Amino acid sequence: MLEQYQKKNRFLQKVNPSLKLAGVLMIIAVMVPVFDPWTPLFLFGLTVLLIIGLGGVSIRFLGLLLLPFLVFAFSFLWIQVVFPDERGETILFSIGSMPVALENVYTGISLGMRALVFASWSLLFVLTTDPTRFMLSLIQQCKLPPRFGYGMMAAYRFLPMFREELQQIRTAHRIRGLGEKRGLKQFKRYFIPLMAGAIRKAERTAIAMESKGFDGRRSRPFYQRIHWNRYDACFIGLFLTLLVVVYIVRAQWLVS
Amino acid sequence: MKQKRTMNLREIVVMAFISAVFGVLYLIWIFLGQMVTGVLGPVGGGLMAGFWIMAPIVCALIIQKPGAALFAELIAAGTEVMVGSVNAGSVLILGVTQGLGAEIIFAMFRYRSFKMPVLMLAGMAGTFASFVTQFAMYGYSQYASIVVWLMLGTMLLSGILLAGWASHYLTFALARTGVLHNFAIGKSEYQRNKQEPAS
Question: Which domain holds residue A165?
Answer without folding.
Answer: 150-211
